[in-house]
Specification:
Elements lengths: L1 E6 L5 E4 L1 H11 L4 E6 L5 E7 L3 H14 L13 H10 L2 E7 L2 E2 L5 E7 L5 E10 L6
Antiparallel strand pairs: 1-8, 2-7, 3-5, 3-8, 4-7, 5-6
The protein binds zinc ion.
């Protein structure tokens, strides 16, 4: 298991980590397989979405803020229930194929850590699984 450590800067933001994940795949020298990207936190998530137009990220964060507003009638007393809800809506892991020693993503796809209760220090755990046997 490899770990990417990063510091988020805002309460809610999407931070692209695609290049850091690709670097770990290069370091492992794995040509074909799968890459699991997991965040060990309850107030952030990880997702794949468009990395070209930043307005897509803004729209995603705006919709999540409407679904889980910062101020609401929550039971959890820590003041960050919205972040817990958004975290579960986005999810905590993605699995992507590795081909030719890199993430095999679509043209416009990137991997994003989704911060919902920043700024904080975050970890992203990355496990690269080599494919053995015939490749199809
Ligand atoms: Zn909490």
């Amino acid at each position: 298991m490899k770990i990417i450590s990063l510091n988020t800067r805002n309460r809610r933001e999407m931070v692209e980590i695609t290049s850091q994940v690709n670097k770990l795949i290069e370091d492992e020298k794995i040509r074909t397989g799968f890459c699991l990207v997991f965040v060990p936190h309850t107030t952030c998530g990880v997702t794949i979405n468009e990395n070209a137009d930043p307005s897509v990220r803004a729209d995603i964060l705006a919709i999540l803020a409407r679904l889980a507003p910062e101020k609401g009638n929550y039971q959890h007393g820590e003041g960050n229930s919205d972040a817990h809800v958004a975290s579960s809506l986005v999810g905590h892991s993605i699995l992507a194929p590795v081909i030719n020693g890199r993430l095999a993503l679509g043209t416009w796809q990137g991997i994003f850590l989704c911060e919902f209760d920043g700024p904080r220090s975050r970890q992203v755990w990355v496990k690269i699984i080599a494919e053995t046997g015939d490749v199809s």
